[in-house]
Write a structure and sequence with these properties.
The complex is a heterodimer of chains A (113) and B (115). With 113 residues, chain A is mainly beta. Chain A is 0% helix and 57% strand. Chain B is an all-beta fold and 115 residues long. The chains are: A mainly beta (113), B mainly beta (115). Chain A binds chain B through residues 32, 36, 41-46, 49, 51, 90, 92, 94-106, and chain B through 3-4, 6, 9, 31, 33, 35, 41-45, 48, 55-56, 58, 91, 93, 95, 98-109.
Chain lengths: 113, 115
């Protein structure tokens, strides 16, 4: 069965600092991996996705994530945090012939001035 | 930019009552989904729907739940007799194509509170 673990339910960084949000997955078959962001009172918005084309994936708003099979990880990074990055971030996995997304518990990012 | 909309944003109901949560997917999308998130827990898949049929459902989606596309635009989730444990945020999503790699577009959610 597939699963996703997000380490750290809350992450706080200063504006301009590196953002690192951790995601580890478990899957017996090659996975598709996603990062979604949720701003207050809004729906989940896709940041980026890994679909086996390239291990380093660039997304919107300056975020990127690297698929590391040996570490079963898909961590999300951004070199320099902005106040507008404050939101909840969800890692998700999907496999094979199913459409369903399996989500992690989410990480709330706070950005301090 | 097209978006998925959901109504109401917040629904309060008494235990045992029926509720219908409504969603308007993006107009040219053909695949529809419901997820829910109990406070403090993971977002969980409930059901996927295509061509007026359920494609896949989770074990959460028991006989108390049903989905329908009553017309060309709405996609609804009905809970027949709500329980306290149904209190959660319910998200609707849609996609233009099938497949694990396709982006699902999510609505803002409906917060259901069962008293």
């Amino acid at each position: 069965a597939q699963s996703v673990t997000q380490l750290g339910s809350h992450v706080s960084v200063s504006e301009g600092a590196l953002v690192l949000l951790r995601c580890n997955y478990s899957s017996s078959v090659p996975p598709y991996l996603f990062w979604y962001v949720q701003y207050p009172n809004q729906g989940l918005q896709l940041l980026l996705k890994y679909t086996s084309a390239a291990t380093l994936v660039k997304g919107i708003n300056g975020f990127e994530a690297e698929f590391k099979k040996s570490e079963t990880s898909f961590h999300l990074t951004k070199p320099s945090a902005h106040m507008s990055d404050a939101a909840e971030y969800f890692c998700a996995v999907s496999v094979g012939n199913t459409d369903k997304l399996i989500f992690g518990t989410g990480t709330r990012l706070q950005v301090f001035p | 930019e097209p978006e998925v909309t959901q109504t109401p944003s917040h629904q309060v109901t008494q235990m045992g009552q029926e509720v219908i949560l409504r969603c308007v997917p993006i107009s040219n999308h053909l695949y529809f989904y419901w997820y829910r998130q109990i406070l403090g827990q993971k977002v969980e898949f409930l059901v996927s729907f295509y061509n007026n049929e359920i494609s896949e459902k989770s074990e959460i989606f028991d006989d108390q739940f049903s989905v329908e596309r009553p017309d060309g635009s709405n996609f609804t989730l009905k809970i027949r007799s709500t329980k306290l444990e149904d209190s959660a945020m319910y998200f609707c999503a849609s996609s233009s194509d099938r497949g694990s790699y396709n982006e699902q577009f999510f609505g803002p959610g409906t917060r259901l509170t069962v008293l």
